[in-house]
Amino acid sequence: MPPLRDVINEYELQAKKSLGQNFLTDLNLTSKIARSAGDLENSIIYEVGPGPGALTRGLLMNGASRVVAVEMDHRCITALSNVSESYDGALTVHEGDAMKIDELSLIGETNGKDIHIIANLPYNVGTALLVKWMTCEKWKPWFKSLTLMFQKEVGERIVAIPKTKAYGRLSVLCQYRADCKILFDIPRQAFIPPPKVTSCIVQITPRDEDENAPAQKTIERVVSAAFNQRRKMLRASLKGLGVDPLPKLNASSIKETARAEELSIDDFCRLALEYQK
Known about the structure:
Layout: H1 4-10, E1 23-24, H2 27-36, E2 43-48, H3 54-61, E3 66-71, H4 74-79, H5 81-86, E4 91-95, H6 103-107, E5 114-120, H7 126-134, E6 145-151, H8 152-159, H9 169-175, E7 178-186, E8 191-192, E9 199-206, H10 216-228, H11 234-237, H12 245-251, H13 265-276
């Protein structure tokens, strides 16, 4: 297969800021990302924003039985045809907006294989896509794991613990249902063009849902209300939910003077259960 830099030049794939594009070109690095997701030989990979195909190649080189990719940039669709031909059709590329796609309909028959989402997410929609996947009502979800690239600042928010500046809505929505960790950083120089910030690879592994867990929509409402005014005490920030928060806080053994960033995941779950009553 031609070197990635040649593919980028041949198809005039200058990265578009409007699409949040920064292209990886180091195949050693993309292979490392693929390996970090575990054994891919009996798995289907869902990839968003493959661009010229650096990570796609890494996934297929490391044994993925099938890769289903979604790409908005029509220029990249043609460029990826070389990858599909080289791997006997193991790659299927769909042109479209990943925010609007029904992933399971796109993937189709799995024949019992696990689905993993592995992607260098476009910076402009990465967080929105993560929230989409983490807030699906049915849990465990349709994917076995997420191995995703984010700006390091976003990765730190995902794994943040209470009483830290990075801890917020995204931290709770992810950790409420899954184990989250940063695997390693990706330097700016690994991209064309280099972004202004360091990136990182985050791995998210869904857990079995506790039978006493609050409904996803309820915890999302409570967490959003609490962090929308994070500097206010909960007795004030939760008033937006339409009921007196004091009885709910008292029943959850949470101080009314506490702020959102002080609450643990368990605290938020207890509070959400009170709002379900």
